[in-house]
Structures are given as C-alpha cells and as structure tokens.
Design goal:
Length: about 325
C-alpha cells in the first residue's frame, strides 16, 4: 500500500493536500484517533475512514451481484437468458424471466407475456403473476388492459433509468450500445458534479473520495474483480452526493449499475489504467482544494477514458 500511495500521490505531488483532508476528516469522525494516526501512514496501514454516507451502505449491494453471478458468458445469446440463483424466490424468478424477455427482445412491443417457464417447478400462483405484472408495469415495460392482459411496451415507454432495467439491458444483445448511452449520461453529469463538489463537499466527502481512490490503486492489479469495483462505486457515488445536488445524487444507483455491468460482463481490463487511477486521486485532491474548474476537466477525462476502454475491450472480442 505504501508503494501505491507513493505512485498515486507522488506523481501528482499532492501529498500535502491529502494529509490536510485526512486531518480534517479525523476531527469529524466518530472514532477517536491519537494525533500520530492522522498521517497518511494510517491510511496505508488499512484504517477505514468512517463515512456514514449513503454511498458506502449501497456499495455492497451492487458488488454482491458479481459474487452471485460469477463469470458471465461473453456471448450475447447466453447473456440474454434468465439468470436463476438458488436463493431467488418464485416472484423474483418470474420477474427476471419476463423482464429479460421484454428487454432482450424475445417479446416485442404489443405481444403478450408468455406463459411462465419455471424449469419444471410448480407454476406461480395468480397472486405472484399479478404482483410481477405490477412491477413490470411500474417500470414501463408492459401495459395492462382488461381482457387483453399484459402486453410489452416499446422501449420509448420504459423507465430507462431503473437500475433493474439497466441490468437487463446489459445482459441483452445491445449491451455495448447501452453502455455507450450510459457513458454519455455520465459525461453530462459527473464533470458537473465534480465542479459543484469543490464548493459543496464536506470533510467526510473529502475523506471518502480519497479512501476510495486509494482502494482503487490497492486493487488495480485486479481491476476486473469485486474489490476494485467496490472502491470504484464508492468513489462515484460519493462524488454525486458531494455535489449537493439531490438530482445528481439520485443517479448513484444508475452509475453503480453501469460499473457493475462492466465488471460482470467482462468489459474491464485485468489491470487498471495508471493514468485513470491518477485522475481519480487528482479529482479528490482538487475537490479538497476547491478548484472546481480543474476537477470538472479531470472528471471529464475519467468518463471519456472509460467509454473508450469499453469500445477497445469489446472490439478485441
């Protein structure tokens, strides 16, 4: 870890800024550290910075998807199939089956939902099918009319920002197109969030951004695994929260689903790009410094690099 910090902060010559962020965080932390623990070496030793933000509590929920799904099949055909795990309830299995059928294109606009296929298990009750239909209707995937039943809606009617819809799209045949659309959304939001965070972020946000950037460096040799993903999600969720804009913060789950989808569908490099890692740390330092313009510009580089990396990895297949 000492080496990771030396690479990240030495290259950027921002060690002093980091120490200032850490010192400030310690004063507001729920824990009581001795004065010698306020140095950067405390972070290097593995001290967890107390956050309490919604960003941290939501990270495990997203990274657990990777552990459950395991390594996904790289083909679009295999990815479009329903994913069933032993702990899924009948309700969740039917929701996944029907939702994936609509989003993946097996059921086209205007067609009725098919009879449930539970793989030999007992058919779901009417109560379950009604509940699942209501959930799909709330996502805009189906319309329900009396006597006509539930029929699939065109994509224009979908709640395209619903995290579950995003996950289904990333399992479907148009995964790369969906990721590029999400990258365009990130390019419109995250640089602006970085600029706002330079004036709105709290000491807690400074500390969590720095911690997340260090976590990404620590796991950079395994950037396609859950530990790196957890730190990456924490960084971007915290950035959106730190903007002080509730609209931006509400997109945290969308960004998390995007990052999770990249990892789950093998669109992350084995080793993280060192320049991109440096940019993450630079954004954290610039926000702490209050330099909104520079934070915005650097965040734009991060989003652009991510989109280019997706194209590069997808093109190599």
């Amino acid at each position: 870890m000492d080496y990771a910090i030396r690479v990240t902060f030495g290259v950027l010559n921002m060690y002093a800024i980091f120490v200032g962020a850490w010192d400030t965080c310690v004063m507001t932390s729920e824990r009581s550290f001795d004065s010698d623990a306020t140095s950067a070496s405390a972070v290097a030793a593995g001290v967890t910075i107390a956050s309490g933000s919604a960003a941290r509590s939501a990270v495990t929920q997203n990274t657990s998807v990777i552990a459950k799904a395991g390594t996904s099949d790289s083909s679009d055909t295999a990815s479009a199939q329903t994913t069933v795990t032993p702990e899924m309830s009948l309700h969740d299995r039917l929701l996944d089956e029907w939702g994936m059928a609509v989003v993946g294109g097996a059921v086209t606009a205007g067609e009725r939902l098919p009879e449930p296929d539970m793989g030999g298990d007992a058919a779901p009750s009417r109560t379950v099918t009604r509940e699942v239909t209501r959930v799909l209707e709330s996502m805009g995937l189906v319309s329900v009319k009396r006597k006509a039943g539930a029929t699939a809606n065109p994509i224009e009617a979908w709640n395209i920002l619903d995290p579950q819809v995003i996950r289904w799209r990333l399992r479907g045949p148009h995964r790369i197109a969906a990721l590029h659309e999400l990258s365009q959304l990130r390019a419109a939001v995250e640089p602006a969030a970085a600029r706002l965070a330079a004036t709105e972020a709290t000491p807690e946000h400074w500390a969590t951004l720095t911690e997340a950037a260090i976590g990404m460096v620590a796991h950079s040799d395994h950037a396609d695994e859950s530990e790196y993903l957890e730190a990456d999600i924490l960084f971007h969720r915290t950035l959106l929260e730190a903007s002080g804009n509730l609209m931006f913060a509400a997109l945290g789950e969308v960004i998390a689903s995007t990052l999770t989808g990249r990892t789950q569908h093998e669109l992350m490099p084995k080793t993280a790009d060192q320049t991109a890692l440096n940019w993450h740390t630079e954004v954290a330092a610039l926000i702490r410094k209050g330099d909104g313009a520079a934070a915005e510009a650097t965040m734009r580089r991060i989003v652009d690099e991510s989109d280019q990396a997706i194209s590069h990895i997808a093109g190599d297949r």
